[in-house]
Design a protein that fits this description.
This protein is mostly helical. The protein has four helices and no strands. Helix 1 packs parallel to helix 4 and helix 2 crosses helix 3. It starts with 10 loop residues before the first helix and ends in a 6-residue tail after the last helix.
Length: 90
């Protein structure tokens, strides 16, 4: 994840966001809602297009918010996955 003040949203950031969304198992619509973005904005974050953002800086902040939202969702899913693979008590 980018630190505050670092480079703007890149193609690699877009790829990581898409991979994280797919890993968490969300469609773009649900992921956008989770991050309080429109589906068009989410699509542009994943596709590297900027027309739905006023500035590149706003796009970068939206991308960071989207990434954080997905990381939190992944962390919430992790304990459930750990419990499902534990052996039942003897």
């Amino acid at each position: 994840m980018k630190a505050h003040g670092s480079a703007l949203w890149s193609d690699e950031d877009a790829k990581r966001l898409r991979e994280l969304r797919e890993t968490v198992g969300l469609e773009r619509t649900c992921a956008a809602r989770l991050a309080c973005l429109s589906v068009a904005q989410w699509s542009q974050l994943e596709d590297g297009v900027r027309s739905h953002f006023y500035t590149p800086q706003i796009m970068t902040l939206a991308g960071l918010r989207a990434t954080t939202a997905l990381q939190r969702r992944a962390a919430q899913q992790a304990p459930a996955a750990d419990q499902s693979i534990k052996a039942p008590p003897s």
